[in-house]
Amino acid sequence: MGKQLWRLLASVKVSVYVLFSVAFALAAGSFYLRWRPGAFPSLNELTLQQWWELHSSPDAWWLVALLVMLLLLFINTSACTLERLVALWSKRNEYSRHRFLVLLAPSMMHLFFLISLSGHALSLVDSIHQQVPIAAGRQIDCSGFSLEVGHLEAVFWNHPLVKHPLRQCTVALNIRTPSGTVEKEIRFLHPFRLGDWTFHLAANPKAPPTASPELSLILKKDPGVTLVLMGGALLALLLGWYFLQQIQTKKGSKPD
Amino acid sequence: MSAAWISVNGFYVAFAAYTLSLLLAGAKKERASRAVFIFGFLMHSISQVARGWYLGFFFPNPMFNEITFLPWCLAAVGLVMRILDRDSSLFLQVAGLVLIFSLAALFAPKGILSPFAQSQTVLSPLFFVFEVFSHGCFILGAWFALVYLTKKTNARMFNMLVIWGFVLFSIAQIVGATWSYWGWGSPFSWSERHLGSAALWCYYAAYLHLSFVARWEVRPRAVVAALGAVFVLIFAVTYQLSEMSMHVSQ
Predict the structure, then answer these.
(1) Residues of chain A found within 8 Å of residue B247, distances taken between Cβ atoms
(2) Is A41's CB within 8 Å of B191's CB?
(3) Residue in B188, B200, B193 with CA at minimum distance from that of residue A34
(4) Which end of chain B is more exposed for a tag (fewer CB within 10 A), N or C?
């Protein structure tokens, strides 16, 4: 019974069906967000638990299906990776170092995928997202710190065809924490970190070109983001390396 | 003569050259057909580069907008295939696809997507380069899968194209996630666009694993690869078209 269950959990056939199901649930979600968005966009600002308490509805069937399938995928990928790693490790002396690394690569890719998936799960259940409008002189209180918005300097594109003319903006922030005051500057695409929090500058893209653009500060506490980005980057790089090695191996094995 | 004029008219000339190239191929004039195709590709390249100066200052993103960059990618992959593989019939099939997608681009809204504050990073054009190239590989893979299903030839070709499409798409996803994090504070967003991309990634990840499952021989895998193009067109190209119809600067 135990062996049969393990064989099922570590089956590539199951991986394929689960991956297709995840793709289907994501596709359904994509259609809902386009045609019947309802409360789904607020998933970006709330944890899954908060969202479920406030907005659960029959329309969320795809979300439930997605989460169940992702859990299955996590278990299945873990089992497949573990089984393959154990088998590979026992035969490690039979291969050259390079060949062993090439054979190890798919397991490492799956490991990085699991790391990235764990990051997404952490972000979903344990992140804090606050978006507050800012203007020069405004005070904002947050848990653990408060901040005051200092000077604000905006640069615009001066071209009639540019629809969203705000090009860049520099905002000075005075942040008071229990351990002292910190002065920071923030710009678009230049977030900064302070303790567990990251600060990002955002703007209303449809605002008219004026000297004081409609800006907001995104305050995030997201324990999963590093895992998502690191896991994803290592997975993508290793994927490219692995298939390049496959091409070289095939070229090498071609008869003259 | 403005950059906008060069970009629009360069594309018309490229389209005319692609059409003539196929007509010459039909008349069995292969060398002339290939030369005209290469001329069309050069004009298309000039048109794409000119899009970078469409607004009078340099902004790289429009060079890689899916509507016109996708046929360019298909043409580039076709030329590489022609160099690597001397089979001219393959090249002809790619040229046919280039013509179809160029024709679609002729009917798409003219102009470019306007720049915005968060597009001022190298990650933004880089994301589009990888993404559109991957879509090109998926679409070509689907086409050769269809050819395999009807004529039983070139089984390796569609598989290789889908594999490299998946590699490029994975790189695009991580570049896009980093851009999204820098610009909007989160590597993933619950939006139509991000969910569609994730769906596509999982679909092709499933395809890649099919070769390890018994009874999933080349033929059923070709069906999955061919169906993939439908998803690419639904999630990627239609999204680009709706973006173009809302935010275009002419």
Answers:
(1) 163
(2) yes
(3) B193
(4) N
